[in-house]
Write a structure and sequence with these properties.
The protein is α/β, with parallel strands linked by helices and about 450 residues long. The chain has a domain of about 220 residues: Rossmann fold, CATH 3.40.50.1100. A six-stranded mixed sheet has the order 4-5-13-10-11-12, sandwiched between helices. Helix 5 crosses helix 10 and helix 6 runs parallel beside helix 7. The longest helix is centred in the middle third of the chain and has 19 residues. The chain starts with a strand and ends with a helix. The chain binds pyridoxal-5'-phosphate. The site of pyridoxal-5'-phosphate has 17 residues, from helix 6 and helix 11.
């Protein structure tokens, strides 16, 4: 598979180059020249396949030519000791993406990317420096994924005071090859600093720079995996057993099921739109997905674009679902490189939810159905409810992506529902000490600290 920059259809690179460079030299994002179709034999057996086998089949055409089949098999085996349970709650499926070490979906992308980078860089002497801007969850997942990986140094930039205490410990508590910069500004400022660093000739001469944001194609490919796996199960009407970290309260009636199966609608709590773009790839690969819901918080740039056709990036505003506080989603350029406004607006419904409705949803879903959502998942749950209330024709098979464990956002969730049991990985992270350097949102300050 070859990859082009969204801004230059003339020159293509292979997967390893696109992954290691992150952003193309012209500032564009790498996109595959085409989206491969999954073999029919795979599509017909998704419902019973092991998660790692789905990962292998989904990633194989994307990495083809850069990694042998055996290397890819080992990679996914090592990256995913956990899976993505599809559990039932009320009238829908919840796709729990928080069973990895940092309890958010970004573990899926980061763990694949870290292992792919280590493989592509084998035998190099100069360390690779990964720069990553985070609104909260990316930093922790990338830090955890790359921690201890030889030949790779990671610098995480996060907006000072706008990530939770736990997120800050996941980002800045590991040490070793991971350093943390606390930036006096917003996530958009952090992202602008990283973009500027990549465009700076002096820095590129001095350091081998790479990115790990959702602009990196090597994070999107593994994210397509859980859509493919879940769509296969949902189409067959099959829910999984609860996982170890499933935040369900016992003593509630069994979830109701309206349909035996079929093509699903996937509701995706969205910020930078990497996750939704991965979903679009999964659909184009032939996974049984009918529609998507792009669920945002008050940062509603994309829902407005879907409605009006005009894209107006804006400053981000802080909300309770802080990993989605993005006013200028970087993957927008990638989505629109593949699909027109008309195509996107046919396949994606945009809905935005404010903080009051987010809290009310956490409370209601807990008290009525005994399931505890985090603020990001609650934005998604509410979006599906709003579409239902408006009478939008939705397929009966509905899958909500639960992007983080509620214990990650205990300061918001616990006052609404009482104590939330944290997965063991989070309890361990809480015991770490934060070591980070505060810098102003200024390029000279960043260049100095690298
Ligand atoms: C990053 C994140 C999102 C947003 O994902 P995008 O790919 O940036 O759209 C949603 N929820 C959680 C918990 C996240 O960490």
């Amino acid at each position: 598979m070859r990859y082009y920059s969204t801004r230059d259809k003339e020159h293509s690179v292979d997967f390893a180059t696109a992954a290691l460079k992150g952003l193309a030299a012209d500032g564009g994002l790498y996109v595959p020249e085409s989206v491969p179709l999954l073999p029919a034999s795979v599509r017909s057996s998704l419902a019973t396949m092991d998660f790692r086998d789905v990962a292998y089949e989904t990633a194989r055409p994307f990495v083809g030519g850069c990694m042998s089949a055996a290397t890819l098999r080992d990679l996914v085996q090592d990256a995913y000791p956990f899976g993505a349970p599809l559990v039932a709650a009320d009238d829908r499926f919840v796709l729990e993406l928080f069973h990895g070490p940092t309890a958010a979906f970004k573990d899926f992308g980061a763990r694949f990317m870290a292992r792919a980078f280590a493989y592509f860089r084998r035998g190099e002497d100069r360390p690779l420096r990964i720069l990553v801007a985070t609104s909260g969850d990316t930093g922790g997942a990338v830090a955890d994924g790359f921690f201890g990986v030889e030949g790779i140094e990671v610098t995480v930039l996060y907006p000072k005071g706008r990530v939770s205490p736990l997120q800050e410990r996941q980002i800045a508590g590991l040490g070793g090859n991971i350093s943390a910069l606390s930036v006096e500004g917003s996530f958009d400022d952090c992202q602008a600093l990283v973009k500027r660093a990549f465009a700076d000739p002096e820095l590129s001469r001095r350091l081998s720079l790479s990115s790990a944001n959702s602009i990196n194609i090597s994070r999107l490919v593994p994210q397509a995996v859980y859509y493919v796996a879940a769509a296969g199960k949902a189409a067959a009407g099959k829910a999984d057993e609860d996982g170890e970290a499933t935040p369900r309260v016992s003593g509630y009636p069994a979830p109701r099921r309206e349909s035996a199966g079929g093509k699903a609608v996937f509701c995706v709590p969205s910020g930078n739109f990497g996750n939704l773009t991965a979903g679009l790839y999964a659909r184009a690969m032939g996974a049984p997905i009918d529609l998507f819901v792009a669920a945002t918080n008050a940062n509603r740039t994309v829902p407005l674009y879907l409605e009006t056709g005009s894209y107006e990036p804006r400053k981000s505003v802080p909300t309770l679902s802080n990993a989605m506080d993005v006013g200028a989603p970087s993957n927008f350029e990638r989505m629109t490189a593949h699909w027109s406004h008309l195509e996107l607006s046919r396949v994606i419904k945009g809905v935005w939810t404010d903080d009051a409705a987010t809290k009310a949803t956490i409370e209601r879903v807990h008290s009525r159905f005994g399931y505890i959502l985090d603020p990001h998942g609650a934005v998604g749950w509410n979006a599906l409810d709003e579409l239902k209330a408006k009478g939008e024709p939705l397929p009966p098979v509905r899958v909500l992506l639960a992007t983080a464990h509620p214990a990650k956002f205990a300061e918001t969730v616990e006052p609404l529902v009482g104590p939330v049991k944290a997965p063991a990985s989070l309890t361990a992270a809480m015991g770490r000490t934060v070591v980070s350097k505060t810098i102003p949102a200024d390029f000279a300050a960043l260049a100095d600290s690298l």
